[in-house]
Amino acid sequence: MSQDNLIKLECTECKRVTQYSHKNKKTNKERLELKKHCPFCKTHTIHKETK
Length: 51
What we know:
The protein is mostly beta strands and 51 residues long. It has a single domain, classed as Rubrerythrin, domain 2 (Single Sheet). The protein contains no helices and four strands.
């Protein structure tokens, strides 16, 4: 797997990086927002892409 396409997803509730994902940066210019499970909050929350 390529490290170029790897992105970090940060929980909007607790502000911790809990998820990692891949994206095609050439076709998707805007930041990604996904609803994922946060093990610290113990709920499904919105995770936003960080730098």
